[in-house]
Every structure is written in C-alpha cells, then in structure tokens.
C-alpha cells in the first residue's frame, strides 16, 4: 500500500528510483512521483496514473545523486497530481514521501498550520508542512524538526525526507508501515520492499517502529526518538533476481498460477528430511499446549484458514476458530484459557493482522505467523514463523500463496498429530499426497484452453455470478468468488450450496452464471447436484468443476482426485484460471485491478 524508494550516493538516482518504483508498483498505482537532487539543484516530477506515465514526463536533465520516489494508493485525497507524492513544505525546502495514515492530521493542521497554504488533501502534506514549520519558522535543524514532528504525529507511517540545502542525506522514520535500508558500495538505499532493491544490493538493515534513521552515502545512523543511537546488524537477503521477473508470461498472475506445482515440491523439500516431516519443535509444542487455535487473517489468507480448518482439527484434535483481522482487533470473542494465535499473511505486513498481533503480545498470548516473507513485520513480532516458500508473489490477486498456505498448515497439522500419536495423522502420508496434488495441478494447467473456452461462453459479458459448494468446496467457493470479483469486476458471491434456497436463489434468473464445485464425498456431491438442478430450473447458466472420482460425463471441468484434506488446493486452481481468463476477455489489467494494492499496510 504505497511504495517508497530512495537512494543517496554514487549512483544515477533517477534510474534507481524509476527501476525501484516499477518493482513497487504492485503496492499502489494511482499516481507516482520522484524528487531528485544534487549540489546544483533539484527536480520534483509527479504524474497521475502508472509509473509508465511518470517515466514519460522525465527528461534527460532530471539527474542527481540522491532522491526519493513514491507510488501511491490513495487514502486521504483522490488520485490527482496535486495529491501525488512527494510533497513539499511551505518554502519547498523540505520534500517528503509517506506510506501510511496519519490519524491526527486534522488536529495538527488546527494546532500548528492555520497560516499555511496546503495545495491538496493529503495527510502527508500536513506532515511535511509541520516539519517545515519547525525548520523554516522556528529555526530548528532538520533532524531536530523531524524528531519533534515524530513526537506529535500519530498513526502509521514510513517517511523519507530530504532537505534541498543538504542533498546528501535522507532522513527516514517508520511506525507500523514497512521500510528497509539497502546497503551498497558508495551508496545506500531505502525501500518498502527488498524486492525493489535486489538489483542493486542483497545486503539489508531493518528499521524498527519508532526509529529515525539518517542515511548518507557511506553511513546509516539509526536513532530512537530521543536521539540515542541504536546498533543494528545487517543481513543478506536470499532473493533470486529471476523470481521477480515475468519471464515470457504476459502477466505475473499466470506465471504464479503455473508455479504452484513447483511450490508444492519446494514445500515438501523445506518441511521434510528423508521423508520425515520437520517442523520446528517449539512450534509443535506451542500447538500441543494450546486448547484452541485462533486463525487471524484477511482476504485470501483468511479463506486459506477456512480451507485448512477441518484438517487442523482432525489431526491436532484442537478446535480452530477463524477471525477476520480487521474485525478481531476491535471485537475479540471470549478467548479460551490457552489460546494460540495463528496469523496467515502472504506479505507479513497486513496492518489489520498486525494490530491483533500487537494486542496478543501485550496480553502475552503466544503466536505463529505463516508468511511468504521472511523478516516481515508479522514474522518478526510473532513468537514463531513458518514460511510459505512460494517465491515472491507480485500479481495483486493471490494464487500460489493461498495454495502454499494450505500446504504449510498441512505440515503443521501432520507434525502435531504425529507428535500426539493421532491415528489419522499417522495414516496421512503428506509427502505422497502433496506430490499427487502437484500432479493434479499440472493436469488442470494442461487444460487451460478448455477453461478459456468455457469462460468465454459464461463470463465474458455478465455482470454477476455465483460460486456454490458444500463442505470444503464452500470454502473454495469463497476464495474463487473473491478472485473473480477482484480482477474481473464481476459481482460474485461464494455460497454454501444448501443456503441458496434460504434467500439468495431469488437472484437467479435467465443466464446468471452459477459455478458449482464438487469434490468431497458422494453424499455432499448428490446434494450439490440437487442444488444445481434448482438453479438450472430457474434459468441459471451452470458450469461444474468436479473431482474426477465424482464426475459425470457432461461435467465441464474435471479435477484429478487428491486427498480430501488437500482438495481445496486442487479445486481452487481451475477457479484461478477462470478469474484470469474472464479478466483477459473483458480487456482488463489482470495484475493490477483498480482500487487495489498488494500489501495492505493501512487499517
Ligand atoms: C486477494 C488478496 C488479498 C490478501 C489480503 C491479505 O487476492 O491477495 O485478499 O489475501 O489482503 O494479505 P496478506 O496475505 O498479505 O496478509
């Protein structure tokens, strides 16, 4: 949610910023801007739209040895050039980019800036005017002014600040929003995400909440808000440059869908040793000690929690409760005596989940984060972490992370069940079953043409659609419908098939697409087929996605059978492709749907 990049030192700042912003574009793409400076002057360039629109505005004269850049996902103020970052202080001496939400911006405006002229509607402009006031009107140094402002500003932020009178320094600070330092030879960088700097360096340094950092070309000085220096070791990030490119694919989403069999095999490698399941003992013990597991997540990750719930309960013999992160933090149910909170988050940065984790830590509740991003905030702050090993997921619509989340939870469930001598866990040959899942996904991927054709008949022009299913197929229906609506803009609902007749069936009329998922057992399959008849009788255009073992000749898409615990992984793949092709056929940008951003770092 908004991307920040900055560089200072012996590099062409414009090039570095633009390359970084292109890599960060998945975090927000309604406007963008850069500020570039050297000892002879500075340039501020902004544009509404994508990074390509900004690039078109940058002439060869825009060069410097230091700069900051931003790609925006609007929170305060509509997407416009005026609201695009960077923003400047009253005299334009200071320039600031920001990711996050300043909660007390209205109060700051009233208390400190009544005589200031503000151009736009952003909270960020208020922050830079506040710092600017302390420098330009009250005579503080930039460092003192920044520190003073950080004591006043409340909310979430990653800030990068430059002073036109000292183009050799970038000041940064963060609270609840991600920001990292990248260390180079003769230059240093800052960035919201290591991926955007990996071309330049693989050596990084974390910034913790409520730290202010003074970044120069050959030094990084981390301080707390009282000005005390903080020591911090750097680390090497193991990111493969080829993971972050699209290769020959037209869209990241298709590449990431195709990567799923490989991810399943990578997970087998990561969580086994000679076919024995290896999950950190401390994690297994944490689950064994809990009397209830609370899974807290958002969006697709929340759906992955549902998809794994039955398996977790069956194998660990511990009840599992699900919570939507944005609700949970402010409306927490009565907890059991020995809860374990499990956070599922692809990015590890989701602010809604993080606010629950902060409260859990305050209450001393143990926690496990299941994430794709080592070193992410949710990983650092939880008691334990399990990684998804899915490689960077760049398309806004999550695909391979969802299937990796279910598979990772399977390793957890199996390890705990085995440790408890649970019979079902001992009989569940997870390595073998996941290998079959990988084959099943491959079989589905080989049917892309068929799926594309079915979608063309069904979804190319419709305004709405329904996914239905029972048991774990209902959970897959929730995810399938999210995927379809978020990128194709078709209004779609995922329904428990038996629930339609309790109200929603009144929406079924001639031609409404109903996509039915059938895996699980023959009894549920028969019931779902009954529900299909009910909607077909009312004119619905039905498409069936059915486990081969339960399929009939005229079913539309057949999915190779896998173990029932893992069937959500196999069943979701055709729905990912359906969302992909529906979006392509409707002429939309698959990877960057409107109004969205990949990493949701605001509450
Ligand atoms: C949808 C999607 C989102 C995320 C949600 C949580 O395709 O990707 O619904 O799942 O924003 O994000 P993470 O998993 O990063 O916490």
Unreliable stretches (pLDDT < 50, length at least 5) are none
The radius of gyration over CA amounts to: 25 Å
Count of discrete alpha- or pi-helical segments spanning 4 or more residues: 19
* Average pLDDT over all residues: 94
Mass-distribution shape: globular
Describe the structure.
By secondary structure, the chain is of the alpha/beta class. The protein folds into three domains: 3-236, Aminohydrolase, N-terminal nucleophile (Ntn) domain (Glutamine Phosphoribosylpyrophosphate, subunit 1, domain 1), CATH 3.60.20; 241-443, Rossmann fold (3-Layer(aba) Sandwich); 447-603, Glucose-6-phosphate isomerase like protein, domain 1 (Rossmann fold, 3-Layer(aba) Sandwich). 37% of the residues lie in helices and 24% in strands. It is built from 19 helices and 26 strands. It is globular and about 75 Å long. The mean pLDDT is 94. Fructose -6-phosphate (F6R) is lined by residues 298-301, 345-347, 350, 353, 397-398, 482, 486, 600.
